[in-house]
Write a structure and sequence with these properties.
Blueprint lengths: L1 H6 L4 E3 L4 H9 L10 E3 L3 H5 L4 E4 L4 H11 L8 E4 L5 H13 L3 E4 L2 E2 L2 H6 L2 E5 L6 H8 L3 E6 L6 H29 L4 H8 L7 H12 L8 H17 L6 H16 L13
Parallel strand pairs: 1-2, 3-4, 4-5, 7-8
Antiparallel strand pairs: 6-7
Helix pairs in contact: 4-5, 8-10, 8-11, 8-12, 9-10, 11-12
Length: about 280
């Protein structure tokens, strides 16, 4: 995402908890027709000191809260905070309160899509926040998103929709893993199963791509398994708070937990390893 912004003319200052990852961004920037500049900061406060917009894309709510506690005092007046990580509902409320206390406008805008869609500018953004901030945010979303869905004025509506989408995604990955394991156990070529659903109402692009990875036992990381497990936990927490008696999150969490010790950093398609 940072490369997309820099390559579309934005001046980007990046900070990452692992500085080597931030420095790798600089090495990969400059191929776009309107290439801007991308520099690496030594701290969150330094990263936002001259920002009109600050974007957070971190693994969870605790990390985001800690980073922004350092950054917000350095943020210029009138700047906007776009929170694009998947952090769950309780953390989103805490972050909104943090922004309010600092008198900073916040937009809740988690995304759907993994590494390749991000690199290609094909993410889907679920955005929510004040109407007055939308034009500014839409200009930021344009280089990274194929679709932007504004779903409400309150910071949190975007995260609620994202959790619903993530529940569907987790169920799809888990069901795909179990179907492939069942095919193998019954002596059915799992590629024949994938061919049977491809192109029809039972198929999906995820089934085609992730299913092939599961069959080949090759899991190059687009979205790591441990983050899918985190997202399933966020779904379960949200459902419990809303008193919705979901059954699948518990079963999916058990499946993922069995694969995590050996495959936490592998792609989420490695969920199938729990069944082998």
């Amino acid at each position: 995402m940072a490369r997309r912004w820099a390559d579309h003319g934005f001046a980007v200052t990046a900070w990452n908890r692992d500085r080597r990852k931030a420095e790798a961004l600089v090495a990969g920037t400059g191929s776009g027709a309107g290439a801007g500049d991308l520099t690496v900061a030594d701290s969150p406060a330094a990263a936002v000191a001259e920002a009109e917009v600050v974007v957070t894309m971190l693994a969870d709510g605790d990390a985001t809260e800690a980073v922004m506690a350092d950054a917000l005092p350095a943020l210029p007046a009138g700047a906007t905070w776009i929170q694009m990580g998947t952090v769950g509902l309780a953390a989103t409320d805490r972050l909104a309160a943090l922004a309010s206390a600092a008198q900073v406008g916040i937009v809740d805008a988690p995304v759907s899509g993994t590494r390749q869609p991000a690199e290609q500018g094909l993410l889907t953004v679920f955005a929510s926040g004040p109407e007055a901030l939308r034009d500014r945010c839409d200009r930021v979303f344009e280089p990274v998103a194929a679709r932007v869905l504004w779903v409400g004025d309150d910071a949190g509506a975007g995260s609620r929709l994202k959790l619903v989408v993530n529940h569907w995604l987790a169920a799809l990955v888990a069901g795909l893993a179990e179907s492939i394991a069942l095919a193998e156990g019954l002596g059915v070529d799992p590629r024949r199963f994938l061919a049977a659903i491809e192109g029809g109402p039972l198929g999906s692009g995820y089934a085609t791509v992730k299913g092939a990875m599961m069959v080949d036992r090759q899991y190059p990381t687009a979205f790591p398994l441990h983050l899918l497990a985190k997202d399933v936990t966020l779904v379960a927490e949200a459902a419990a708070a809303a008193e919705v008696p979901l059954r699948l999150p518990s079963a999916i969490s058990d499946l993922l937990a069995a694969a995590l010790p050996a495959h936490a950093e592998d792609d989420m398609s490695a969920a199938v390893e729990a069944l082998r």
